[in-house]
Structure formats: C-alpha cells, structure tokens
Amino acid sequence: MNAHSYEIALFGEFFSPDLKPILNRIALHCESANQMHTREIVFEPMDSQQQREAHQEPVLLRAKKELLEAEASWLLNAYLRPESVRVHPEATVRPWATVQVVGDALSFASALGFLRRSQIYKRGYTFRRGPLVIQMFQQEQVDPKTEKPIPAHADTLWEVEVKTAHPVRNTQETPLKPYIDAVLEVQLLMKGLLDLRRQDA
C-alpha cells in the first residue's frame, strides 16, 4: 500500500469584474472566510538542471508565511510530480510533505542543498469548507531592492486554488475518494461562474 501523503486540488482563474459574484457564491458555501497575504518562496535543488537533463523531476520546496498573522511561522512544503491523468482524471493529486520550521526556514532550505528560484506574494481571501481550504488571490510582484510586495494592478488576474487543507494519507481506512469528491463538489457549486480544473504543473 502506498503510504504517501497527498494534496488534492483544482484550479481556476478569472478577471476582476467577476470578483463579487464569485466571492459571494464561495462565501455562501463555506464555514469561514479570512483575508490572506502570503509570502511564498520556491526553492529547487542545486543540481536541478542535471536532474532535468536525466529526465528526473526535481523536488521543489515551497516556503510559505502568512503575513497577517503576527505569530505565523514558516511552513515548508515539498511537492512531487502529480499522479497521472489516467489515474486521477478529475483532480490534481500529488504527493505532498509538510514541515513546520522553527526559526529561519530560508536558511534551513539552503542547508538542505536548495537554491531560491522565485518569490511572490499572494493577496486575497482564504475560505474553509470541511476538509478543504479555498484560496482566491492576486499575485504581487516583489520589489528587487526592498523585497516588499508591489500592489497588484486592478486588472491583474485572480487565481483560485481549491485543495485539501492538510496532507491526506491514501490507505484502506482513509481512501482519497471522499476528498476528491469534496473538491469536485466545489467545482459543481461554481459551475457557470468559475471553471475549476486539474493542472499538472
């Protein structure tokens, strides 16, 4: 039995004029809603180029920190390549490990042999619905001098991620199906307003 933990997700995007109806429909079907402003840094292994040339997919580390929570610590997530569309045609299902880091996550990632590849800020809203977290945000670019976020233009695309809030084990006692169903339920709720789909990136 495969003992990996997984993230199950669907993705969508829309333009600013549709924000209000989409926001209202999601809020109506969720238990809670909060504002979010997240800093996210992606690291890749030092030898990622060689791995790609050898047709291996390097493991990426994502460091995230919620800036609106005073006590928030960095979270490090490691994602592997999503399972094939043949196995899971309806949603993105990918192995996922998460590490709570005390102190400086960025130095920790460097010590593991990872290099910083990119950095963005995400500003928007986060909703909870049962086992899922729904994030709706605009990406903000980073000022190269100060590393502070540059506010997004009003017409910047909004992105939506509907995903399991925590890594999910795939065992006989806890199969993935109920979580896939929960994600597909949101897809159905948003039909006609927002097209949610799987993606392989």
How would you characterize the overall build of this protein?
The protein has 201 residues and is of the alpha+beta class. The protein has one domain (5-189): Hypothetical Protein Pfu-838710-001, CATH 2.40.320.10. It is built from four helices and ten strands. The protein has an eight-stranded antiparallel barrel. A hairpin with a 2-residue loop joins strand 6 and strand 7 (132-142). The longest helix has 13 residues, at 177-189. The model has no long low-confidence stretch (mean pLDDT 90).
Measure the end-to-end span: 26 Å
- The fraction of residues assigned to DSSP E strands is 35-45%
Low-pLDDT stretches: none
> What's the CATH architecture?
Beta Barrel
Number of strands: 10
Global mean pLDDT: 90
CATH superfamily: Hypothetical Protein Pfu-838710-001
By CATH reckoning, the class would read Mainly Beta
Rg calculated over all Cα atoms: 17 Å
Strand/helix succession: EHEHEEEHEEEEEH
Outline: globular
Largest sheet: 8 strands, antiparallel, barrel
Quaternary structure of the protein: single chain
Total domains: 1
User: What proportion of the residues is helical, as a percent range?
Assistant: 10-25%
| Strand order in the sheet with the most strands | 1-5-4-3-2-6-7-9
Which structural category do the helix and sheet elements fall into?
A: alpha+beta
What's the CATH topology label?
Hypothetical Protein Pfu-838710-001
